[in-house]
Design brief:
The structure holds two protein chains of two kinds. Chain A is mainly α. Chain A has a single domain (about 1-40, about 55-270), classed as MetI-like (MetI-like fold, Orthogonal Bundle). Chain A is built from eleven helices and no strands. In chain A, helix 3 packs parallel to helix 6. The longest helix of chain A has about 35 residues, at about 65-100. Chain A is globular and about 75 Å long. The two termini of chain A are about 15 Å apart. Chain B is α/β, with parallel strands linked by helices. Chain B has a six-stranded mixed sheet with strand order 6-7-8-3-9-10, with helices on both faces. Chain B has a six-stranded mixed sheet with strand order 16-17-18-13-19-20, sandwiched between helices. A four-stranded antiparallel sheet of chain B has the order 2-1-4-5, with helices on one face. Chain B starts with a strand and ends in a 6-residue tail after the last helix. Chain B has two domains: about 5-255, P-loop containing nucleotide triphosphate hydrolases (Rossmann fold, 3-Layer(aba) Sandwich); about 275-285 and about 295-520, P-loop containing nucleotide triphosphate hydrolases (Rossmann fold, 3-Layer(aba) Sandwich), CATH 3.40.50.300. Classes of the chains: A mainly alpha, B alpha/beta. The interface between A and B is medium-sized, with 20 and 29 residues. Chain A: Belongs to the binding-protein-dependent transport system permease family. Chain A: Keywords: Cell membrane, Membrane, Transmembrane, Transmembrane helix, Transport. Chain A: It comes from Bradyrhizobium huanghuaihaiense. Chain A: It is found in: Cell membrane. Chain A: One of its GO terms (cellular component) is plasma membrane.
Chain lengths: ~280, ~525
Amino acid sequence: MIELFVRLIRRPQGLVGVTLLALIAIACLFGPALAPYAPEKIDFLGRFRPPGWQNWLGADQFGRDILSRLMVGARSTVPMALIATFVGSAAGAIIGVGSAYLGGRTDEAIMRTNDAVMAIPGLLLALLLVSTLGNGAGNAVIAIAVAFAPGMARVTRSVALNVRNQDYVKAAIARGEGAVWIIFREMLPNVMAPIVIESTIRVSFAVMLFATLSFLGVGAQPPASEWGLMVADARQYMYQAPWGLIMPSTAIALTAIAFNLVGDGLRDALNPKDER
Amino acid sequence: MIPALAIKNYTLDYATAAGPVRVLHDISLQIGPGEVLGLVGESGSGKSSLAWALMRHLPDNAREIAGSLHLGDTDLQRLSPRELTRIRGRRLGMVFQDPSTSLNPTLTIGRQVTETLIQHRGLKQREADALAVDLLGHVELRDPAAIMRRYPHEISGGEKQRVIIATAFGCRPDIILFDEPTTALDVITGARILELFARLRQETGVAALYISHDLALVTRVADRVAVLKRGRLVEEAPAADIFRAPRHADTQALVQAVPRPERRLVHDKPGDEILLSASDIEVHYGRASLFGHAPPPATKSIGLDVRAGEILGLVGESGSGKSSVARALTGLASFSGKVKFDNQAITAARDMNAAYRRDVQIIFQHPDSSLNPRHKIGEILSRPLKLYGGNAAEIPRLLEQVRLPASYAGRWPHQLSGGEKQRVAIARAFAARPKLVICDEITAPLDVSVQAQIIELLLALRAATGTAFLFITHDLNLIRQIAHRIAVMRRGEMVDLLPAEDFDAEHVHPYTRELMAASPVPVG
């Protein structure tokens, strides 16, 4: 584990990614304690105050400090997006590999069903699920996971089809291994690289999807300082106070970049052929 | 007289994270005008690096430490990129190993041939078209005008290699580098390509550097042979002498490793008891779609039986269905027909129970893909032990059995060489204590010397365990050394099934005779 971490931070991308993720993690853990203001403290004299010594990243339409809101909001944004992506990716990966392994008509049946689910836009599906299950962060996580699974299944299956034709899988079939062993131990480790990369990209989508759900009123509710909600709120004041839009967007983008960099680094570090 | 190509004291390093690795030590070679020099060496001996150095297409981490490369009176190392494009193809041709990857799949053959001619000989499109048809006809391609309009996937591997050779010769270079041009082709096609090469060479008098790992083959095409071992030149001699009187120990080992049918390695007789008998085996790939019929079976009612402790050879060119038979017998492909093993009748893959799976093991051709890259050797070997009874404590014994150190259990597959990986695959098969091992071209990707070691190992394991082998190969000389009986397949049919001694007899099938002619016995 330590060896893996050392290999990860030995490259500049890995190091930058890990540093950014560490900052995000600190914000998630200690955000409320470190924030200079309370996230909901309204200051009418400081409405739309540009970034400066009073409010480092500026203030929004109620004069609330954007930096403080971002630091507190990390907690309600990043972990949720992570869990949703993880659950969705895991489910999709297992469906994809299983489908590729079984092959023939079973594969056909699974993938056509999958395509049917994919035909429904992700947001619509998530909305449908949340409105069925009821509002709340937990249900939003489930909804996003379900919306992500089919796409992951497609990506995974295309890689798994190659792996399925490798001789080590044939050797496992020829010696009479069970399907569970072949799917989880022979095939899954060899399709991990694209899964890891695809999921790190999807973390940022998950953040945005949460924001959209919040915007539509089924996710986080105002005055919560969820990042996506902050973007949605600041939208109408874009010309007066662009920082209200830029700062949370940057936070989302940096989070996405951090996950991407770490994902790339992990792919290299996890590769046993990499000996540098 | 200026030699066509002169390499003088050439030394090459690759810079790696672990420090520089020397791949070529002080190489000096000369090729006279019209001469063919054969360059022989195992994989990793640096022969391809030398070819790339001559083409000036070395990877970024290559460091040329010393020496010079001269093409005629041109110093190759001093050329600018612009001058290089005029040299490559025009004065220095190259024919690569794998014809399927050296043609662009999105352009027609005609376009690729004429483009080269226009570029290097300054011809007009019309002249180039005429010359291309002429050249393609000259390499014995039927209906060259039609070939010109086709795409690479529409012609066979042998035809592709002919197109590449025609293009290389068409630019009238001073010298052509051949990097294992027949390795990716099957025996008969390869033999035809060699005949073509000999004829073109006589007609054009071009000089050539012919790189191969196969000493027997090189002595047939080259005037002189140079032997490369770990980046050092160990011997250089006229082709006629090197086989008869190799001076250096490494050359002697190479000569020794070349399979010769008259030197039998197996002297016992198999038992009379029939272990496995297969009859009317037809292997089916794909299934009937809604609007189409299923493709025809890959094999046409094959019948064969393997006796206890017997080595049965199965030979044929690529696409003859010999691997399909192996897949059917291990339940990897659906088949119709009957298999009888140990008095148990099997008609489909689902009839193969744990006992059958244990008794019949398969070893695949490519050791790189038959070992899971994410599993350590110890884990790979522990699976059959877990499935068929046995415990992990046996792993050191299994490794020792295939003459690998027990410490290899903690290694990853990519840390092993090709031959070592194949040993692990053999150990995995023998972990089950099988009665029959199916070897599907297991020595094809290996060097001749490694091949000899693997064969010796298999025979030693057979002596210790009494296992029978179904040995699938395209190398007739090799199989005639070890098999008790040999089956010959062609286009899904079995044309011959003879005891190994009877191959010199009169009554063999014409195809078998053709196969024997294509794999001549080395002289000396």
